[in-house]
Amino acid sequence: MFLTKGLICIAFLALLANAQFSPNYVNGRNGMVHLFEWKWDDIAAECENFLGPYGFAGVQVSPVNENAVINSRPWWERYQPISYKLTTRSGNEQQFASMVRRCNNAGVRTYVDVVFNHMAANGGTRGTGGSTADPGSKSFPAVPFSALDFNPTCGITNYNDPANVRNCELVGLRDLNQGNSWVRDRIVDFLNHLTDLGVAGFRVDAAKHMWPGDLAAIYGRLKNLNTGHGFSSGAKPYIFQEVIDLGGEAIKKSEYTGMGAVTEFRHSDSIGKVFRGKDKLRYLNNWGTSWGFAASDRSLVFVDNHDNQRGHGAGGADVLTYKVPKQYKMASAFMLAHPFGTPRVMSSFAFSNPDQGPPTTDGQNIASPRFNSDKSCSGGWVCEHRWRQIYNMVGFRNAVGTAQLQNWWDNGSNQISFSRGNRGFVAFNNDNYDMNSSLQTGLPAGSYCDVISGQKNGSSCSGKTIVVGSDGRANISIRKAEEDGVVAIHINAKL
Ligand code: AAO
What we know:
Helices cover 23% and strands 19% of the residues. It is of the alpha/beta class. The chain folds into 2 domains: 2-263 and 349-382, Alpha-Beta Barrel (TIM Barrel); 405-493, Immunoglobulin-like. The site of acarbose derived hexasaccharide has 23 residues, from loops. Acarbose derived hexasaccharide (AAO) binds at residues 76-77, 79-80, 115, 121, 159, 170-173, 205-206, 208, 242, 244, 246, 249, 307, 312-314, 316.
């Protein structure tokens, strides 16, 4: 009896273990973008007009469920749930469902930022979908949740005490008890509803603040992905959990990596330090778990995220953002060229005040991005994903596929290069002097267009042309004063 139960349990865990680590991308595509605070109709159009054609595999969207309306409309109001009704400043349920359908048709998968650790804090009495709540008495009638569904009122004060981190309130947000069966049912219903609408997975907000056992019980009840949206039968939602683990605290990401991937904050921290010149580029030759990262298929990697780009969460001074464009593009190119992890590109709105919300038409309604002739955005939107140096590296990642990292070279300092098998080659110069070297590219002989400085157009290249000889070598020059400190060529950019 005991043995059978144990075996069933092991079989179940094995099933769980195999299921939630694949992002469920369409074959041949790779790379996710976070379209932070975009409206659903705009994302649908972006999937069709840009993300699909340029090879992006997925889009992470801002929270979809009703949130508290906060005066002055900061971006962070969306992390204060009022109900699981799908109405926010980004649009309503019908618009969201249509977006997911149109993105899937364009080959782009949707990942929802799901917030179920907590509900709104005091002050969050009115929701974006018209519901009301009284966080003071822990009453959220539109779910409904009452005081019985929450942990006692206490604040998180000690990151070295797991019970304090998981049973108390993160910055005053009413802390749901995921051990309570009513609460679990509401969360499972919410997630399964999104799966029915065709999403491919979830970013689990504040996962560190929930007990791993409760999360396992919730994940174990998730539906398979909707085959009506082109997912293979039996596919499970991809789960990436927000667990900030830079070391030195009681809670470890390893408590979560058995159930899904984690947002690898060490990747963001380390890549920022390296490309800011606080660490040598040559040390990148063992980039991966030797740097303390979780395993590659458990690591959702990024240069910056919506929190740490503005000093929230684990936002240290070393995080690179769009405000430091040369180093930011270099770090992004390295992340996208390197085989480690599941990369996510950040797409921001411009800000000077960290609380500032997205561009609006009238102080309330989110404005749509505007597009310039060079594909970049205006109207307050930064759209890093539309920077040539970034979207062309998504193209690079798709072109090299699973090819191994080979032909590592460095100058002992801050000039490095490597190939991905015989399909792609990149070089970086972060030294304070020019780079001019004959390097092994691993590529077949021919002329290639550098996709960082330009674009291949038929048989011509608007940027640097790189000539690879019959021995696979090419002369690579990156002057210190150049706009970009990278060159990248690949098999689809052969002239
Ligand atoms: C807002 C106001 C608050 C107000 C509250 C309620 O800003 O003043 O009290 O409403 O009225 C977002 C915003 C919050 C906002 C909230 C709700 O960022 O400012 O509060 O919406 O509207 C922790 C969590 C992590 C969380 C992060 C921000 O662990 O889960 O804080 N991120 C997610 C979302 C985020 C969202 C929420 C969660 C809430 O991505 O957008 O908040 O849904 C240590 C810990 C980390 C901890 C940080 C911050 O980090 O390790 O786990 O993150 O502290 O407290 C070094 C260390 C590093 C350390 C860091 C900072 O880097 O190495 O470990 O220093 O000390």
